[in-house]
Write a structure and sequence with these properties.
Elements lengths: L2 H13 L4 E9 L5 E13 L3 E10 L1 H15 L9 H13 L3 E7 L5 E9 L7 E3 L5 H8 L3 E3 L2 H4 L13 E8 L5 E9 L10 H37 L5 E4 L1 H14 L3 H7 L1 H8 L3 E5 L1 H7 L4 H6 L9 H9 L1
Antiparallel strand pairs: 1-2, 2-3, 4-5, 4-9, 5-6, 7-8, 8-9, 10-11
Helix pairs in contact: 2-3, 2-6, 3-6, 9-12
Length: about 325
């Protein structure tokens, strides 16, 4: 299928005195399958001595399929469909590698076990939680921080709880790392065959593992943010003092313009113009008010307090306003 386009490119390269070339193309085979091919060639010699051609053709179909999946994931980014990302990744790895099963797991907070977030293949009865306190392939991979292929599992890891329910013979495990290089999870490719040739698909598996690691980092950050927000909200609402959150962007814009206008005498200007101070104070937009503030202000509701917030600024706020702006 690829002979004529490649030959055409070679002839044009020779005519243009190009000595090193590479190209990729997509073809349909006789059976109707899609075939992605990369051709690399080097041309030596001259018109007097003749040309010598060094040519290699590589089937890059699996790589292209992986790139397409990642491109679809990227273009479909956003909040919608994020929960389905792990199933897409593990299904793609299994389709490329022809393994029996692929799973993605996240190290739990107590660092004693891995929680399986997604499992795809004909071993869906794999345990969703795997301990790795003792010697297991997961523990060895996490400790080394490198992708490893494990064989003779029953002989080398007799206490491995995966083997109690699943006829696993070999595994290829890739550690998922965060931006600091710490292992946060694993991607495991599992086979019933003892000598399964994972090596043919290492690069493709690593591509998907990298994408899974990015997604896992995002989830961990969101979980931490949610817990922090919940803790902050609890402290905020139950604090025995008035606490108010403000939106400050309008204050900064107003103050920058005032500083540019007044140059070196901003303090004197604020002291001599109380109306300017109160103009700036009114640019503090309250976005969140705690219960104690409601009690002190004797407000009927938070919305009632927000609507009448400017009435809380008394004359004795004048000095505080000047200090705040300076």
């Amino acid at each position: 299928d690829a002979s004529m386009p490649v030959l055409r490119c070679l002839v044009m390269s020779i005519a243009r005195n190009i000595t090193l070339c590479a190209g990729e193309n997509t073809y349909r085979t006789i059976k109707g399958n899609t075939l992605h091919v990369r051709a690399n060639w080097a041309i030596e010699g001259s018109s007097e001595t003749g040309y010598r051609l060094i040519l290699s053709l590589m089937d890059i179909t699996s790589r292209k399929e992986a790139e397409q999946v990642l491109e679809n994931l990227a273009s479909g980014g956003g909040e919608e469909g994020r929960e389905d990302l792990y199933p897409v990744l593990v299904r793609s790895v299994r389709d490329v590698s022809n393994a029996d099963c692929v799973c993605v797991g996240r190290i739990m907070e107590d660092s004693t076990a891995i929680e399986m977030l997604s499992i795809y293949g004909n071993m869906t009865y794999l345990p969703t939680r795997c301990s790795f306190i003792d010697s297991t392939p997961f523990a060895d991979c996490i400790e080394s921080g490198k992708a490893k292929t494990f064989r003779n599992l029953r002989q080398n890891y007799p206490e491995f709880d995966f083997l109690n329910t699943v006829p696993v013979a070999s595994m290829h495990i890739v550690p998922l790392k965060n931006g600091h290089g710490s292992v946060i999870g694993v991607l495991a490719v599992i086979s019933r065959q003892q000598k399964y040739a994972f090596v043919r698909h290492f690069k493709i598996i690593e591509v998907f593992a990298s994408r899974a690691a990015v997604e896992m980092q995002r989830q961990i950050a969101e979980d931490a943010l949610r817990l922090s927000e919940e803790a902050y909200r609890t402290i905020f609402n139950t604090a025995p003092a008035s606490v108010v959150e403000y939106e400050m962007s309008n204050v900064w814009k107003w103050l920058d313009a005032l500083k540019e206008e007044q140059k070196d005498n901003l303090f004197d200007h604020l002291r001599d113009n109380p109306e300017t101070v109160f103009e700036g104070l009114l640019k503090f937009v309250p976005t969140r008010i705690n219960d104690e503030t409601m009690h002190i202000a004797r407000a009927k509701s938070k919305q009632h307090l927000l609507d009448n917030y400017s009435r809380l600024f008394r004359q004795d706020f004048f000095e505080t306003g000047i200090k705040t702006f300076m």
